[in-house]
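Bug #77: duplicate submission created two jobs. Keeping one. Sequence:
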Amino acid sequence: MGGKSSKAKNGGTDEPKKKGEEKEERKEEKARPDPSNFYAKNLQHATVCKAPGSLAGQQFVIRDCEDCDIFVCDNSSCVTVDGCVDCRIFFGAIDGSCFVRTSKNCKFVVACQQWRTRQCSDCDILLSSDTQPTIESSSNLRFGCYQAYYPELLAQFTAANLNVFHNEWSNMFDFTAAERNWTFLPAEVTVSSLLKPFPEEIKADLSRSVVPLTWGDRPNPPSEQRFFLVVNKDTPSVVALLDELVVPKANYCVFTAISGFIDPHRKASSPLSPLRFDSSAKGRPRT
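Kept job's structure:
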């Protein structure tokens, strides 16, 4: 004769969840990425390190940081840097654009599909860009060729669809070119010149680089040695070859061609010393 049960009145909605359902919900919450892992904002005098595998190709945002050291050692889809002052910033491999705005007196080492800068001043950049870099409303920017190595970096380039032998770093397009707003860094500037030491967990070896050091459109010094390198698609083998061939700190310049494509900003009129490579000769060139 008593009233209906609470379960009946509520259509069974008060029934406790089964253990399997609770476990699935906990799994979903655990798998959901933490948004704070993908940005560095409003930091001062801080060091941020994103180790290989921590971003898994997601975008990353840096905003309003001052005197910070930021190492993003993973591939990401795109990057924006806004309002930073006196910062030192490293990015391993970016599948899309790296857009830097309203920042000043910063140091960058960046590999990306597209480099874009707007309203920035007094910044030094070691760059690898798959397309023509652009700057706008900026002043006193200085560029050099990207140089970096840690064990996971080559695989990150592959994941980001970047070719280590195609680097447009010196082929700059300035939207506001009434005056010379950019120039080249001295050739002797290295990653160690711009950044503080990498965190120990990264295992960086800055005497090596997955990206060949190229002279770009700098005037060629009379003593410069040059060679023309034709490679196939086996990028890891070619990188290993260059590791053996090039003595650190030696004067050299690499001109590259891949599957018939020659980097457009290499000057065809520059004198070359062609070499062909014998794979059985441990990377030693033969004339």
